[in-house]
């Protein structure tokens, strides 16, 4: 299994690359990397082509997966499928770089679910029937299915939630006291409003 930190978004609302923002003297991308690394995973960063030059100033080139030019899609799915194309036999443990509050113990829960219930394509958390697709495990067999659908014009939407609707998903209900850890920060105002 490979850990993938999703950093390739446009960060339009934030106005700057979220992965390179700093919190407690560490880059957001590095914080997510450290959380996935704590699970004894090899971890890489998913980035878009415009980020490649900048990210090589902070991270080793081998740890960067740039969006695949052959994929005519946008959003997180582009990062996930690009990582899949680069590592087709690996299951992917995905974490968005802007989920700053995520705790390693919650990531461990996903791994535990995979070990105890191996029959699913994806493992994610849910709250009030809302899926949290940007913190989850996506098995290579499920990603092959999605790639096949994309290549055969069968993927009518490219949202991660639509993708999950086409996979066998193991859903873990988030405890009320843990829901705050799933917030993602999209603007400077959200960061200022939140004491984290």
Descriptors for this entry?
Spore Coat Polysaccharide Biosynthesis Protein SpsA, Chain A; 196 residues; globular; two-stranded antiparallel ribbon; seven-stranded mixed β-sheet; alpha/beta; 31% helix
Compute the separation of the termini in Å: 30 Å
Oligomer: single chain
Q: Give the full name of the CATH homologous superfamily.
A: Spore Coat Polysaccharide Biosynthesis Protein SpsA, Chain A
Output the helix-strand order. EEEHEHEHEHEEHHEH
Residue windows where pLDDT falls under 50 for at least 5 positions:
none
Percentage of β-strand residues: 15-25%
Largest sheet: 7 strands, mixed
Overall 3D shape: globular
Summarize the structure.
This protein has 196 residues and is an alpha/beta fold. The chain has helices at 28-37, 52-55, 76-86, 104-116, 140-151, 160-164, 188-193; strands at residues 2-6, 22-23, 26-27, 42-47, 64-66, 92-96, 122-127, 130-138, 169-173. A seven-stranded mixed sheet has the order 5-4-1-6-8-7-9, with helices on both faces. It has a two-stranded antiparallel sheet with strand order 2-3.
Question: How would you characterize the overall build of this protein?
Answer:
By secondary structure, the protein is an alpha/beta fold. The chain has a single domain (2-193), classed as Spore Coat Polysaccharide Biosynthesis Protein SpsA, Chain A. The chain contains seven helices and nine strands, in the order E-E-E-H-E-H-E-H-E-H-E-E-H-H-E-H. The strands form two sheets. Strands 5-4-1-6-8-7-9 form a seven-stranded mixed β-sheet, with helices on both faces. The protein is globular. It starts with a strand and ends with a helix.
């Amino acid at each position: 299994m490979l850990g993938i930190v999703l950093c390739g978004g446009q960060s339009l609302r934030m106005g700057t690359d979220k992965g390179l923002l700093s919190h407690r003297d560490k880059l957001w991308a590095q914080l997510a990397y450290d959380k996935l690394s704590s699970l004894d995973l090899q971890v890489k960063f998913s980035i878009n082509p415009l980020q490649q030059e900048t990210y090589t100033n902070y991270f080793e080139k081998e740890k960067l997966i740039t969006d695949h030019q052959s994929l005519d899609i946008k959003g997180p799915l582009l990062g996930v499928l690009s990582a899949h194309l680069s590592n087709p036999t690996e299951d992917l443990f995905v974490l968005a770089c802007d989920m700053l509050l995520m705790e390693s113990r919650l990531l461990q829960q996903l791994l535990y679910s995979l070990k105890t219930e191996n029959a699913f394509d994806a493992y994610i958390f849910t709250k009030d029937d809302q899926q949290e697709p940007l913190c989850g495990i996506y098995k290579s067999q499920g990603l092959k299915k999605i790639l096949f659908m994309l290549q055969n014009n069968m993927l009518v939407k490219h949202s991660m939630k639509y993708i999950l609707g086409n996979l066998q998903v193991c859903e873990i209900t988030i405890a009320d006291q843990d829901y705050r850890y799933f917030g993602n920060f999209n603007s400077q105002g959200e960061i200022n409003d939140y004491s984290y």
